Amino acid sequence: MPMTASNDKSASRRHAEASMDRLVGDVQRVSENIADAAASGRDDVAADLRRLSADVARLRDTVADIAKTMAVEVGDAANSIGEDAASAAKDQAKTLLSEAEAVARRNPLGVVIGALGIGILIGLMRGRH
């Protein structure tokens, strides 16, 4: 009978070791899956932030271009008024342009929100006529 007990212990030990190996493998796979999911989520967020940053930069450039165009138009209109008035208007337009560019560079999101508000206001005004 001692042989049977020894065989049972050996079989139980092998079974326990096999179960432990499976458990360790399962834990490793779960750990790898969690790490992969976290890396994927981090990459997605990073890509979204890069796209958002590029969009804000384009919007800032667009606002700066609009400000430059407005300054040129104000300057052109001022030329027809007269030399003295034109000079003053050009100076004011340049100052306005400089201030608009500075604001756009310091707070691009605020400029975008302001532009959105102006666009909505113009749309509402045009919609009523």
How would you describe this protein?
The chain is mainly α and 129 residues long. The protein has one domain (2-128). Helix content is 97%, strand content 0%. It contains three helices and no strands. It has helices spanning 2-81, 83-106, 108-128. The termini are far apart.
What count of helical segments does DSSP give?
A: 3
- N-C termini distance: 105 Å
Q: Please tell me the total number of domains.
A: 1
The description of the largest β-sheet is: none
How many strands?
A: 0
Strand content: under 5%
Structural class category: mainly alpha
- Proportion in helices: over 70%
Mean pLDDT: 78
Spell the H/E element sequence.
HHH
Low-confidence stretches: none
Rg of Cα set: 35 Å
Summarize the structure.
The chain contains three helices and no strands.
List strands and helices in order, with pairings.
Blueprint: H1 2-81, H2 83-106, H3 108-128
